[in-house]
């Protein structure tokens, strides 16, 4: 999903600590698109105040795993 939303090279290793902005070069609109894609993919709703705290791939994965309704 991340690779579809940014110009990340295929050989770039995505890690839990990979930052959406610093490492992937996403701007705030790109990050919103990532959050929307996560919501769609996992059938969850992420409140804005919680979405603002999701800065890395790992934080986002942990958030998804904590959602009982995530598919």
From TrEMBL:
Keywords: Electron transport, Fatty acid biosynthesis, Fatty acid metabolism, Lipid biosynthesis, Lipid metabolism, Mitochondrion, Phosphopantetheine, Phosphoprotein, Transit peptide, Transport. One of its GO terms (cellular component) is mitochondrion. Gene3D superfamilies: ACP-like. It is found in: Mitochondrion. One of its GO terms (molecular function) is acyl binding. It holds the Pfam family PP-binding. The keyword Transferase does not apply. The keyword Cytoplasm does not apply. Residues 1-68 form the Carrier domain. SUPFAM superfamilies: ACP-like. Belongs to the acyl carrier protein (ACP) family. Carrier of the growing fatty acid chain in fatty acid biosynthesis. This is Acyl carrier protein. The lineage of its organism: Eukaryota, Fungi, Dikarya, Ascomycota, Saccharomycotina.
């Amino acid at each position: 999903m991340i690779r579809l939303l940014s110009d990340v090279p295929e050989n770039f290793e995505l890690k839990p600590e990979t930052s959406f902005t610093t490492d992937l070069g996403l701007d705030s609109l790109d990050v919103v698109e990532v959050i929307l894609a996560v919501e769609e993919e996992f059938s969850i709703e992420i409140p804005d105040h919680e979405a603002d705290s999701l800065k890395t791939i790992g934080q986002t994965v942990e958030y998804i795993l904590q959602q009982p309704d995530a598919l």
